[in-house]
Amino acid sequence: MKIQVNEQVVEVADNTNIERLLLQLDKPLMGSAVAVNQEVITRSQWESYIINEGDNISLFQAIAGG
Q: What residues contact residue 13 under an 8 Å CB cut-off, 6+ apart?
């Protein structure tokens, strides 16, 4: 199925959860934040949150600084 990740079309398997998506995209699990259709999904929900066809996903990386 096709979804959008940071405004890029990405093909993922049916029943893909957020954790699997991050692994597929070679993104770190630690220090990442995810929003699906402009709703932030907490880290504790990643394994159970199933992505749907057409979802618009935003991935963010935590950046340390000061």
A: 1
What separation in angstroms does the CA of 58 have from each of 18, 36, 52, 66?
11, 6, 14, 24
Please tell me whether residue 9 adopts helix, strand or coil conformation. strand
Name residue, tokens 């770190």. 28
- In a structure prediction context, what are the per-residue pLDDT tens digits for the chain, which is 66 residues long? 999 999 999 999 999 999 999 999 999 999 999 999 999 999 999 999 999 999 999 999 877 665
SS3 62: coil
Domains of the chain (ranges; CATH) run 2-61 (3.10.20.30)
